Amino acid sequence: MINARTIVPLLAALGLLVILPLFLSPNLLNAAIKMMIAALFALAFALAMGQAGMLSFGHSAYYGLGAFAALHLMRAVEHKLFGFPTPMIPLAGALIGFLFGLVFGWFATQRTGVYFSMVTLALAELLFTLAPTWNALFGGESGISTIRGPSWGINFGSDADVYYLTLGWFVVSAWCMWAFTKTPVGRLALALRDNEQRVRFLGFNTHVARTLIFAISCLFTGVAGALLAIANEAANYTIFSAQASANVVLQTFIGGAGTFFGPALGAMIMTFFARITSDLTRSWLLYQGLIFVLVMLFAPQGLGGLADLHARKVRTNGWKHLVAPYLLCLVVGLLLIAGLVFVVESIHVVLTDAYLAKRAAAKGEWVPYELFGQTFEPFSPVTWAIPIMLVAIGSTLLPVARRITARAWLAATRDVPDEPIAPSASAAPVAPPS
Amino acid sequence: MEYIVVSVLNGVVHGLLLFMVSAGLTLIFGMMGVLNFAHAWFYMLGAYVGFTLTRLGGFWIGLLLAPIVAGLAGVLVERYMLRRVHKYGHAHELLLTFGLAFIIEEVIKLFYGDALVSYQMPNYMRFAAFTIFETNYPFYRLFMGAVALAMFVILYLLLTRTRVGIVVRAATYRPTTVEALGHNLPVVYMAVFAGGSALAGLAGAVAGAFYPTGPNMAVDFGTLVFVVVVIGGLGSVVGALIASLMIGLFISFSVGLNVSIADLFGLIGLGSWASDVGGLFTLQLSTIANSMPFLLMLLVLLIRPAGLMGDRQ
């Protein structure tokens, strides 16, 4: 599979990531670190989910355990109990993640489907509820903190050092996971997802295989957790929350669980989105929830799935048909988003205490409010016309855009067979009875 | 004695509340197979609707309309969202409802703010039902228990004694056969989902007037309702009641007990050794009361995955 078409973009992306810190502000550099950690977490999760079809709803357990393992190791180094090179600390996360993955996974993989999800959820919730009361190990509610020690001539004081450390581990781990999918066990994972019974019939011990795959997923999850511990130099029990488990599931599906790099893409985008919008607005979780719902409704295969679809189906010169319709879709989308954001943020401003105090001072009058650096009269027609116009134009254009895009899609994909011609187990040469 | 009686009373009422919230989910999860993560958020929606209507019209109007509003929200969610993603599988349904949970919570926060709202029961319901060990036992707790029991009886009779109930239960096992017999399966599913959401909404309106009503009320129940449904057995209303009572009693008893695993070792003369080891051995039962439901769920899943009253895997 390694050919010039895949290796060149990958090398280009890697080169970009290497020189990136030169151009980023400290805040963005920190965001980039968190994005890479989230991407690694999502890749590790997708190893169990996308490859083996195991929807773990408690991956935060191994993420948190990896983080706490790394923190305890860093503390031991800090207190001069023994020496350990800082860049190798994620190994502790990997080890703990793998061990707990084996033990917990052995129990969890006895069940399949939603029951598997429920067992993993219960295990993670157990840790989440135990951690705040278990002072010695998890530092109670405040958690534990430590500092990064210098080693190998690098002092790891700056974010740039942490960035390169994270990048190194990200690249190595991602490569290992990609290579794993090519090994016989990795192929077995796909078979387990598609038809476990057949795999068992072929003589494999599916329970052992599922446990092993789950544990390997947990291993890399532990690495991601350890990297987070190194970056933050602290962690507390909230790292185990169901919210954290759910986040990685969501990011994976937004990126596309069926593709290898999709989950990493989804995690990076959503982490960046959260980072940016949480500074700008208090309703950012609302927008995030809307994104989840819209992606699930209209792009269930995720961003990676969409990209994959285009790569497979669009003809070499088909793109010239698609550029204009996609631009139109973008405009329509932006109009609708702008209208929605205007309404939500207006409601938000009008209901803040500061605005209510202003109204009280003006004896209950609806005084003008400020939004996006402008002043708006709450009951002026102009104020109401803005969102109404935005949404009206957007929704009139929406069906038009859909029609044009559908036509362009046909034009762009003409002459390409519907299914990729590849021998696969599911496409057995047995015609269904008609 | 006082400890036991008070713990039983509190545990039973807390368990009944838990049942009210999770009764709808056991129908939705058990009969439609939808992992509805947003279920506890319908409970929250019910509480806020109750709060708003109590201000506008009165407590009883709120109690009446909260389940209707939650049920209508359920109809919209099922008809226009879940039905579309059903073919992609469990994960997509779960994630969709997860997004919905965000949306419901954030929209409520947008209008009502981050603080608790003062949703209160009417004053004429604020009296002590009886006095026990010099403590007044509020009447409203009994009222909540009565609503939950009524809900259980009606739901049980509806599912076992009426034609509608037969169709709903049959749709769980043989959906295609039910459809072939001429029943409109999508409508059945929509009704089950709406009904389940309405029950959660009613629970919110009833319980919100007694417990704090705030943005965190849904998160507290978010995963606990799944625990109840799994322990009770998917789709089993009786199982959900037993599981809720078990969890309620478990929690209310363990918060008052200061024993640890080290104390158990003490019975066989290894107490001091276990205390020296520390860690898990010296955690007090009272501090890990919140872990108990999940431990219970884990045991049930590993030993009897169909749940207490469930009959399927």
From TrEMBL, chain A:
GO CC term, one of those recorded: plasma membrane
Protein name: Branched-chain amino acid ABC transporter permease
Topology in membrane: Multi-pass membrane protein
Main location: membrane
Transmembrane residue ranges: 6-24, 36-54, 60-77, 89-108, 162-180, 212-231, 252-273, 285-311, 323-344, 382-401
Phylogenetic classification of the source organism: Bacteria, Pseudomonadati, Pseudomonadota, Alphaproteobacteria, Hyphomicrobiales
Pfam families associated with the record: BPD_transp_2 (PF02653)
GO molecular function, one term: branched-chain amino acid transmembrane transporter activity
Source species of the chain: Reyranella soli
Automatic annotation (TrEMBL), chain B:
Keyword presence, Membrane: yes
GO molecular function: transmembrane transporter activity
Main location: membrane
Membrane topology term: Multi-pass membrane protein
InterPro entries from the UniProt entry: ABC_transp_permease (IPR001851), BCAA_transport_permease (IPR052157)
Pfam families: BPD_transp_2
Localization per Swiss-Prot or TrEMBL: Cell membrane
Source taxon at top rank: Bacteria
CDD domains from the UniProt entry: TM_PBP1_LivH_like
Record key words, sorted: Amino-acid transport, Cell membrane, Membrane, Transmembrane, Transmembrane helix, Transport
GO biological process entries: amino acid transport
Gene Ontology CC annotation, any one: plasma membrane
Regions crossing the membrane: 12-38, 58-82, 94-119, 139-159, 187-211, 223-243, 250-274, 280-303
Record-stated family: Belongs to the binding-protein-dependent transport system permease family. LivHM subfamily.
Name listed for the protein in its UniProt record: Branched-chain amino acid ABC transporter permease
Phylogenetic placement of the source organism: Bacteria, Pseudomonadati, Pseudomonadota, Alphaproteobacteria, Hyphomicrobiales
